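Deliverable D2.4 — example input (structure tokens):
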């Protein structure tokens, strides 16, 4: 049988200058075994067996998967079947699953449309299964010198490899990792203009206040502020949620609708001396937004009250001394 090479690719569209751009974000190709020391084993059995690898998302952004590609696998004559793409979370729950039929042949490649979101900071088990009528179908695997290790782009950390002799969540520890290339889509974060306390300058904030503070997300010819999803909006270092769903208002008179939200000052985490505060969120279309505006904290100097208290205590002491001196 000819030497095989297996790679699992999470695909997206439009290649430009070494990076992939889509309508919703930036996609980066990742070779999970690139730059890693270890051994390649050829012609490993993949018939009736699921092989996969645990990865942890190191990126600060979620990674969106649109398809998985298995490259250069061998299917023996008379054993046509299917290649099945599988993505599980760390508990074994299925996040995405898709199948495609394949014919016998050598050094094949097949792309399977599949959709999954890999959340930042979470772990997932990415795997594939080849189901055929005749055994002996194979693909290469990579045995690293050790786990864990981080792929060169620094987006994913490989934790361990697993396998299982069925089409299910692979749970048997294994040293062999499929030769995996991953292409992930990272959402674009759009910078927007916000106005803290519209109509005021400077934007005075008393961190000790029990009141609410209005923050407007400004619309423009390039941004429809009414598409901001209020359920995703947070403001300030402590990421306070708005006290209501927001309302539409043209706060700056530019004929573009703005979205105004109100937040409890005590929930925002704005502290004395902070120079600015940031609002983040998403649109109904799933695009991330962020905006920052200056603040001028007030009511932070407690020395005046302390001085008055000291003077009062001094006067009380002086009065007591005076009474004793008259007696």
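Example output (designed residues):
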């Amino acid at each position: 049988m000819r030497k095989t090479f297996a790679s699992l690719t999470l695909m997206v569209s439009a290649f430009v200058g070494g990076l992939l751009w889509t309508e919703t974000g930036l996609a980066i190709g990742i070779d999970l075994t690139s730059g890693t020391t270890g051994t390649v084993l050829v012609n490993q059995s993949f018939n009736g067996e699921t092989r996969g690898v645990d990865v942890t998302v190191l990126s600060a952004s979620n990674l969106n998967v649109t398809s998985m590609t298995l490259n250069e696998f061998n299917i023996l004559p008379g054993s046509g079947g299917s290649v099945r793409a599988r993505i599980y979370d760390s508990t074994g729950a299925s996040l995405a699953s898709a199948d495609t039929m394949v014919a016998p042949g050598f050094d094949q490649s097949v792309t399977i449309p599949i959709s999954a979101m890999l959340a930042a900071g979470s772990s997932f088990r990415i795997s594939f299964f080849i189901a055929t009528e005749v055994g002996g179908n194979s693909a290469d695997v990579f045995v690293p010198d050790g786990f864990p290790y981080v792929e060169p782009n620094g987006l994913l950390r490989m934790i361990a490899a697993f396998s299982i002799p069925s089409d299910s969540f692979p749970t048997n520890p294994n040293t062999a990792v499929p030769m995996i290339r991953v292409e992930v889509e990272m959402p674009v974060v759009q910078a927007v203009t916000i106005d803290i306390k519209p109509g005021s300058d400077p934007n005075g904030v008393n961190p000790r206040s029990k009141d609410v503070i209005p923050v407007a997300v400004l619309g423009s010819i390039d941004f429809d502020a009414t598409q901001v999803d209020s359920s995703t909006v947070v403001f300030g270092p402590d990421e306070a949620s708005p006290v209501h769903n927001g309302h539409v208002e043209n706060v700056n008179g530019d004929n573009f609708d703005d979205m105004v939200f109100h937040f409890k000052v005590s929930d925002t985490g704005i502290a004395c001396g902070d120079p600015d505060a940031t609002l983040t969120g998403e649109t109904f279309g799933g695009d991330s937004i962020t905006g920052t505006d200056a603040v001028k904290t007030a009511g932070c100097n407690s020395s005046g009250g302390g001085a008055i208290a000291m003077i009062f205590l001094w006067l009380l002491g002086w009065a007591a001394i005076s009474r004793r001196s008259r007696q």
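Helices lie at 265-268, 303-326.
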